[in-house]
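Quick illustration, no need to memorize.
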Amino acid sequence: MKNYDHKDIEQKWQKTWDEQGIYKTENNVPGKENYFALVEFSYPSGNLHVGHWYAFSVPDIFARYKRMKGFNVLYPMGFDAFGLPAENAAIKLGADPKVLTYEQMDVMRGQLRSMGAMFDWSREIVSCDPEYYKWTQWMFNQFLKNDLVYRAVTSVNWCPKDQTVLANEQVTDGKCERCGSEVVQRNQEQWMLRITKYADRLIDDLEGLNWPHAIKESQKNWIGRSEGSEITFKLSTDHEIKVFTTRADTLFGVTYVVLAPEHSLVQELKSSVENWDEVQKYISDTKKKSELDRQQSKEKTGVQLKGIFATNPANNEQVPVWVADYVLVGYGTGAVMAVPQHDERDNEFARAYKLPIIDRPLVDKIEITKKVGGKLINTYRLRDWGISRQRYWGTPIPIVYDPEGNAHPVPDEHLPWVLPTDVDHTPDGTAPLARSQELIERTEKIFGKGWRPEVETMDTFVDSSWYFYRYLDSKNSETFASEKSRDAWMPIDLYMGGAEHTTMHLLYSRFWVKALYDLGLVKENESYTIRRNRGLILGPDGNKMSKSKGNVINPDEIVELLGADTVRLYLAFMGPYGVTTNYPWDPNGVVGVRRFLERVWKAKEKISDANNEESDLVHKTIKGIGEDIEEYKFNTAISKMMVLVNHWDKQESISKTEYILLLQLLAPFAPHMAEELWSDLGNSESVHTTSWPVFDTEKVIDDMVTLGIQINGKVRAEITIQKDAVVEDVKNAVVEISEIQRWVDGKEIKKFIYIPGKIISIVI
């Protein structure tokens, strides 16, 4: 028998699948139900790392399984190709960001193909392609016509080095995630999307979604709907402060009032504040912090507005007024009444600055609000979405200005409003497009002398808010996606993605779909039927992978050494996929998975044509693996295959029928090996176009049990085995589990204790 040569096998079948087009997906196939499985499209900012493999190859297992179950499955891929990293790289190299981006995409296509994933490359999308962003611009104009877009001055995250606005997700520990510069807050005019109009729907509609509770709560918390009261505190000057509180019942316990540093009233009080220099310095220091940093900081900082007092409308007591960064201008009114006895943040601040903490009786919320002349309102943490960016490499905002300065949308016949090519995009504090003579000349040629173009580009989150529609009809030049294609595939059946996108990306894309729905452009009010989050693959040291730490795992090297199927199988074996657990990369675990594949390969030598029996174990394996895959427990599905192969190791011969069934079970996990062995057995049809095996109900009487695996008294993993499994089989299966290998690596197993149906315990 020939050796398991993964290099030849994987290259051979990737080429064959591509030539045969077996993964090309039609919009409708008679007799088959459509299933849209989506993963986030990749960003071409460097070579793929093992985290990308985790993101794309493991969901591929599920997509392949659903296909074998008889569904017409769409599993597409593309590139989220605009953005700051490419622009920064281009600046550093003195190159064109378009050239760099397309070169990187060429590299990544090859890397993505090496996964053996069932991507339908005929539907590929690229967000920096004018034929893609034409429709981003068109949608922007539709929103503008319907008052969902406006221009306003707002506080933004500003990177002084990159000279551009940053989204909250692009700020880490108060620094730009790309260049590491300290981010500052500043007021800037920009184009805004009226996402707050949808705040209640974005919360209320979550109830009808098949999403984990944690994701729903993240969305709710980000929107931050609060039901409460607006109450006015008069100041010792001629001014007043309107505060928002959810605890009007604590009004008598107020000991101070707090303004956000950015609150407009602070500047109005300047002449009356005795320590203005101190206040001004505090405001300046606050601008260096992101809102997220301010919310998460355990240290409470602030400064009193000396000489300013507020009067509690409930009892006419005067209390001091402070400025503190734990209060955000965008939440409520940007001012709070502080009740240290009943609020943890207020209590921490009061203790830090030795302010009074008093215990006063609680009163009825509604009655006290009415008594002091307040009003009952809802407020939200969510603010309208600012999309203007002072960058070159992004979707141009399709706006032009007449000689009087009035804004006009670029008409449809001039879309796409393409990026000019004569731009020096070196940051200088102004938008790079402002330096484009090509853009100015184009604008005046079309609209007339004195007209000028908008020089800002869009936040890349805009491009990724609707990308899934373009997969459905990626070559359509008449619309973003035909009604026929949308009817065929929407809403998305399953969207697997990173936990880091639980808030902003999911929220923005949900808003986008709701806005399109209200405009009659789509039929669905929500885009994602099922959403599952994944965690991260950590470095071998247990830390998040980063080049600076030297713990990045290059999958290309592992593929070269052990094969793509090994990487796929190992990543799936690390733990349940649809959870936000982070898993450390274990080199020994990868080798262990490779050994398993070699055992499957070698088992072919035991096939006996005379043996056509199908054991109960095989049928239980079919049943169990199907159930595990449906629950995204790919790890336990693999363990069941290992149990079966362990069983075969003790047999002199293997039924050919059973071996064929194993190859079908293995196919979604290790597609290249399964295809090669399937072909070796004389099958002309691809194993990936066959149907998922069906188990015999009479042979699957439940005699399986799931047991936790203890190491020195602590449960570290679990395994599903037969209730009557013998200790040798159990031990062999347990030591194959990567999580167990990580704990016992290099250590002697002093005891292996197995009590059938009750306990598995390892002492090291």
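The two ends are 39 Å apart (CA to CA).
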